[in-house]
Amino acid sequence: MNDDAGLKTCCAGAYESDFARLLLGDSFHPGGLALTERLGERLGFGPNDHVLDVASGRGESAIFLARRFGCRVTGIDFGSANITEARSRAEAAGVANLVRFALGDAEQLDFPVAGFDAVLCECAFCTFPEKPAAAREFARVLRPGGRLGLSDLTRSGTLPPRLTGLLAWIACIGDARPAGEYVAYFEQAGFLSTSVEIHDDALAQMVRDIQGRLLAAELMVKLEKLNLPGVDFEEAKATATSAAAAVRSGLLGYSLITAQKPCG
Ligand SMILES: C[S@@+](CC[C@H](N)C(=O)[O-])C[C@H]1O[C@@H](n2cnc3c(N)ncnc32)[C@H](O)[C@@H]1O
Which residue, 141, 92, 149, 99, is CA-closest to 121? Predict the structure, then answer.
């Protein structure tokens, strides 16, 4: 396995863990479904759209979009346990006719040219080792005039050492880029009309929530009411404290980015 494949496997594995569910719930991005709805509104989703949700996690956003906008959604994720869970959640939510999930890699999408009306990617682009390849894949699978909606962590300076390790990478921090760099990837892949909407407050709230849940989880483990083998609470709390400081100082933020594939 090369380094990139190892990173993707590690990232997917982390988001399939009980620890991730405990810290994040089912929606793995700042702002939760409110920001997913915001993206859907900005992209004008409706019943005629077929949306590709790249790195769909447990399927929370895909299921929500189908219910809220009536669109068809295909979700892909690198983690097989995520895909299995997303499928059963779609069944339970009664939207299996609109939503389906498949194992896949954002950098090598297993779909034909121009098969989708829109591509969505929430809090995952920053973890892809080959970002230009993923941006080119988004453009390839979109029909002419199709829309792209991304939400992601942004970084506006050099990160402290604590936020450059593997844990920080998996937490979407380690390889976060300035919003302008994401825009440049999409423009180089052929997208037009890019726009950026800042939602740093959503990230600040998420970090506060994670800090609270970390303390609660640590207490439960100490009381032997919870078993989380291999979790280094000191390391996780120190990373969260460092992330909170970076958000407060404006070094880390969260943005929605939208763009369009040219019509012809
Ligand atoms: C922070 S979670 C976001 C999940 C989901 N978009 C959400 O907002 O709830 C990041 C997701 O990216 C997935 N992932 C990481 N690398 C990937 C890749 N190369 N291709 C597809 N999915 C990937 C992980 O398995 C994980 O589910």
Answer: 149
